Task: structure prediction
Amino acid sequence: MKNSINFFRAARAILIASLVWCAFAASALDIQIGATDAAQGIATAAVPIQLANVTTNLSAIAFYVVNDATLGRPNITGLGQNNGVAFVDDFGGGVYRVTAFVLGNPGFANGTIFSLTYSLPSGMAIGSYPVSFLGAPPLNAPSGGNPEARANISSALIPSAGTGGLIRVIPPVASVVNGITLQTNGPFRLQFSGNPGWNYSLQISTNLIDWVTQTNLAAGTNGLFEFIDSNVINRPVRFYRLKNP
Result:
């Protein structure tokens, strides 16, 4: 029974690799890493992995990336496909192999397939941090679990012709109250803008001395967020302020 299971796993991995290799050869696959802006002080930043010129859905994909050592090891986020599995092998010196595959449909197609998400150190310097494809595989072998998948998918590695991306760490912007609107049924609608991805605490006071945290708000990818205050009725004075925790 054990031998049958191992045979099935090996056959499945070889089949996935064969399908991907054929798809690469036939479709002149184009792959690129996107760019993203991250306000200084934000905890994470993600760059999208995007495919183009895919003529058939892919069951697996693998590639090497190299990034600034300050960024550290990326995590795979937003995989999204049915039964998706992904792992990252660390080769040292900012070099990583990214492998992802799906066991169901749909497979990988044109567009963003997932993101490489990095944890940014506190106080990371303002500047640009490239994330690029590596021209040739490292000499040292990968380590970790799923060795059969790694060994068989190695023939499906995407060549280094793809376009690299970067993470731009930019100065944070001050949070701004864009508008306060009285709704027809009584509540106030407060609209804010700040740093994309930042978390803010909305505090409320009636005397500008004692402040109470009302809620926590997350700025969207465009930096915008809002809050509906339904507790303003019969309150003649109400002050608001934002804090970044």
Remarks:
- The longest strand covers residues 44-52.
- The chain has two domains: 2-170, 176-243.
- The CA atoms of residues 67 and 218 lie 28 Å apart.
